[in-house]
């Protein structure tokens, strides 16, 4: 017959704290392995892009908020553009994709949709959006939070640009 000692005499198993520590360390390793790699998927290839040129540009930051994108809520809670009153799909770019790290707004007459840029301090990005104040040698880099866009501010940088063929 198996004798089970009373609860006061039992020793807690050592496996639980070790397993919990391993899970936390593993989760942190996975989380931080993506640091700096958010724009890793955006890379030019010679088959689809011209040779890069370096252009001195003004680079600002933006997010999905009303201040950055010029939209407001109607009295019944629907987001619309301030000037036109057209319905705004918050978080969607003018090219129809969801804004994410690496989304760039540019003057599409000069830098068409699909143009890839490498911005020092930001990383690689693809032109997928436009902006009312974005003209000529000016880019707007997307950030997930307004505070990050404000922290980026307005910078003049040498940006590497790959135009589509």
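-> sequence recovered:
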């Amino acid at each position: 017959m198996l004798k089970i000692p009373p609860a006061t005499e039992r020793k807690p198993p050592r496996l639980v704290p070790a397993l919990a520590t391993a899970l936390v360390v593993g989760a942190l390793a996975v989380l931080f392995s993506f640091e700096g790699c958010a724009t890793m998927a955006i890379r030019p290839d010679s088959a689809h892009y011209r040779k890069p040129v370096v252009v001195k540009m003004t680079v600002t930051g933006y997010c999905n908020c009303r201040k950055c994108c010029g939209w407001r809520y109607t009295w019944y809670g629907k987001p619309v553009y301030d000037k036109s009153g057209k319905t705004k799909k918050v978080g969607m770019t003018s090219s129809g994709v969801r804004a994410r790290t690496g989304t760039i707004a540019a003057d599409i007459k000069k830098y068409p949709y699909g143009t890839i840029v490498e911005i020092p301090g930001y990383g690689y990005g693809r032109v997928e959006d436009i902006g009312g104040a974005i003209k000529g040698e000016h880019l707007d880099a997307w950030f997930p939070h307004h505070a990050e866009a404000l922290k980026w501010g307005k910078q003049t940088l040498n940006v590497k640009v790959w135009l589509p063929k």
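The domain at 53-65+96-162 is CATH 2.40.40.10 (Barwin-like endoglucanases).
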